[in-house]
Design brief:
- It is a single chain.
- Helix content is about 30%, strand content about 20%.
- By secondary structure, the chain is an alpha/beta fold.
- The protein has a seven-stranded mixed sheet with strand order 13-12-11-16-18-17-19, covered by helices on one side. A six-stranded mixed sheet has the order 2-1-7-3-8-9, with helices on both faces.
- A hairpin with a 2-residue loop joins strand 14 and strand 15 (about 290-295).
- It is elongated and about 85 Å long.
- Residues about 50-55, about 105-120, about 140-150 and about 175-185 have low confidence and may be disordered.
């Protein structure tokens, strides 16, 4: 967020992101890849040094790159800092006490990464110029950082007021929002809430300060059809019968489509098959997905892919055969959302704030969210040993980027 807020509100001519250690720590933390995708002009500086204080952080890493850029003004924004639209309303003061509220924005923005945040090196914003002091510091002839201007950011934001008047705020470690956001701010935490900080973060992430929750419509957006998958030659057991009867009785759909390569058999199948709402749809198992060979992939993974294809084509509710329905969900079909889902309680996807349940969800026909989810399987081979990576973890990443198209209702499955 620090980088994106600086791009949006400082609009620098060049931007460098200083990275320390391994930035690809997990499937969730993909800072470098996401920034490169959205802002290809960003340049990354990979560092491996172990820093001991603020001055060495500036002297050894940032200042040399600033001087090599041959620009006149350098701006450092720490990763605990969010830049606001009123940044240039700050009174940046130098050592003599003079004030400058109109600094040249044609400078280099340098963001220190998580290393600074962990070590509490740099907080807020520091602005410095190309001059004799900075050159002497680089040569080791000065013992302290000669800030030309220093503009401390507020560490508390009022509960009401105009978010457009926020110059910058340190958000991760200090201030009244520490108890709300803890050590890590994730997009999900700001999808709702009307404080100035919530509205500022939504503007940075989604280009709008408004809440991202999908609205309810007067007419249903999702058809009252249920889709289920049955791959392989198997007997229809009592547990399947219970699940299926709960769909017919509680959900009470217009039709129930069973998509499979072989029709179920057994006495319990014979009991439900005569219902006029039940339709068996011959469906081949996926053999290739986004260029990835799925011939030898486990049956469960093939079913994961098939449900995305089916619901995107037809729309409706998907339900696994181990789900027992106890309440109607007709009201959910009226939300203007691509997907309506719940979180899963399974211990998958370490570092993810949450994961998406793939056993039960609703989707509208032509869902863009399901298209993006399906396209994620192009990376299936990267996580072949981790079955939940694309099926449950990846859709959460999409949800963070497109929250206005997703309704999370954790009563959907418990």
């Amino acid at each position: 967020m620090s980088v994106v807020s600086a791009i949006k509100f400082i609009d620098p001519s060049a931007i460098y992101v200083v990275m320390y250690g391994d930035s690809r720590r997990s499937f969730y933390f993909t800072l470098e890849e996401e920034l490169k995708e959205k802002f290809p002009e960003v340049q990354f500086i990979q560092m491996a040094s172990s820093l001991e204080n603020d001055s060495s952080a500036i002297t050894e890493d940032i200042l040399p790159h600033f001087l090599q850029s041959r620009r006149e003004v350098g701006i450092i924004v720490a990763t605990d800092t969010l830049v606001g639209p009123a940044l240039w309303d700050l009174c940046f003061t130098n050592s003599s006490g003079s004030c400058n509220s109109s600094l040249d924005t044609d400078g280099v923005f340098v963001s220190a990464n998580r290393r600074y945040y962990d070590r509490s090196f740099i907080s807020g914003i520091v602005v410095f110029r190309r001059n004799e002091s900075s050159l002497r510091l680089l040569e080791g002839k000065l013992n302290s950082l000669p800030e030309e201007y220093s503009g401390p950011c507020v560490d508390q934001v009022i509960d009401s007021g105009d978010w457009e008047r926020i110059p910058c705020v340190t958000t991760l470690r200090r201030g009244r929002y520490h108890e709300t956001f803890h050590d890590h701010i994730t997009p999900e935490l700001v999808h709702s809430g009307n404080s100035p900080l919530h509205r500022l973060i939504r503007t940075v992430l989604y280009d709008s300060p408004e809440e991202t929750t999908p609205r309810k419509l007067d007419q249903p957006a999702i058809p009252n059809d249920v889709h289920m998958i049955w791959f392989g030659k198997r007997e229809f057991h009592f547990i399947h019968y219970l699940s299926f009867k709960s769909v017919l009785t509680v959900v009470n759909p217009r039709r129930v489509f069973i998509h499979g390569d072989v029709e179920p058999f057994g006495v319990y199948w014979d009991r439900v098959k005569p219902d006029h709402r039940v339709v068996f749809v011959p469906t081949k198992q996926p053999t290739e997905v986004m260029g990835v060979n799925f011939t030898d992939v486990p049956m469960e993974h093939k079913a994961d892919v098939a449900r995305l294809e089916i619901l995107r084509q037809y729309g409706g509710l998907y339900s696994d055969f181990d789900v027992f329905w106890v309440r109607p969900i007709d009201h959910l079909r009226y939300y203007d959302a691509d997907v309506i889902a719940s979180y899963d309680m399974a211990p998958h996807c370490i570092d993810f704030p949450n994961i998406i349940q793939i056993g039960v969800f609703l989707a509208r026909k032509g869902s863009e969210f399901l298209k993006l989810w399906y396209e994620g399987y192009r990376n299936y081979d990267l996580y072949r040993g981790h079955w939940a990576a694309i099926s449950m973890c990846y859709p959460y990443k999409i949800y963070e980027r497109r929250p206005e198209r997703v309704l999370i209702d954790n009563h959907l499955q418990v």
